Amino acid sequence: MAMYMLGESCHTRSPFAYLHLGLCSGYITYGITLVFYASVFPRLARNTQRTKDAREKLDQGLIDTTEYEQVESLERNRLSNISTAHSNCTLSKPYTVSQKQY
Fold first, then answer.
1. What does the longest C-alpha to C-alpha distance in the chain come to?
2. Beta-carbon neighbour count of residue 71 at 10 Å?
3. How confident is the model at residue 34 (pLDDT cuts 50, 70, 90)?
């Protein structure tokens, strides 16, 4: 749809056609970046204080492997949720502005 808008003549083109195209390319770029960023969640989760404490308990024999894996999984999910919340707040504002009718 954005490419069709760019192909129209200058007199009929919406003033927000380039904004729409920029937002679409921004979302695509964001999605590509998110794939690489999400691959870091396991490493980040292993380095949080909760997971380090659980690792120490595992090494001491206070918890078993299943409990440790559950703690690590919950930390990955927590980090993912924080990232998703921030991205939704950041990305929703430009989209609502671009959809406004003038």
1. 74
2. 19
3. confident
